Amino acid sequence: MKIINHSYKRRGTIEFMFDDYPFSKVIFAPIKNYYFVRTVRWDPADSVVTRNDLEKMEILANEFLGCLDFYKDRKAYKEYSR
Predict the structure, then answer these.
(1) 15-59, pLDDT tens digit by residue?
(2) Dist CA 23 CA 39 (whole Å)
(3) How many Cβ atoms sit within 10 Å of the Cβ of residue 70?
(4) Cβ(1)–Cβ(57) below 8 Å
């Protein structure tokens, strides 16, 4: 999965588009020093977005924005990766 496009929106949110879901727009919101998926504006032309895909999107977006270290430092990430 790769980032196709991104654009900055209001209140610090960022809209991303990914190559696996080219018609759906994924909105990320800032939480502390990293970004989380807030909503997915899903398009019926794309396949259904799974939780695994959302996690991949979060990792790609945070890596792109330079926040990956903060994302990996969160408690939930450490518990999930065990």
Answers:
(1) 999 999 999 999 999 998 999 999 999 999 999 999 999 999 999
(2) 14
(3) 15
(4) yes
What is d(CA 67, CA 81) in angstroms, rounded to the nearest whole number? 18
Helix (H) or strand (E) holding 61: helix 51-65
Residue 43 host element (H or E): none
Supply the pTM of this predicted model.
Answer: 0.86
Residue 70 CA neighbour count, 13 Å, CB half = 15
- Tell me what pLDDT residue 13 has: 94
Torsion of CA 72, 79, 40, 66, to 10 degrees: 0
Q: In what order do the strands lie in the sheet with 3-8?
A: 3-8, 14-18, 21-31, 34-41
The pairing of beta strand 34-41 with beta strand 21-31: antiparallel
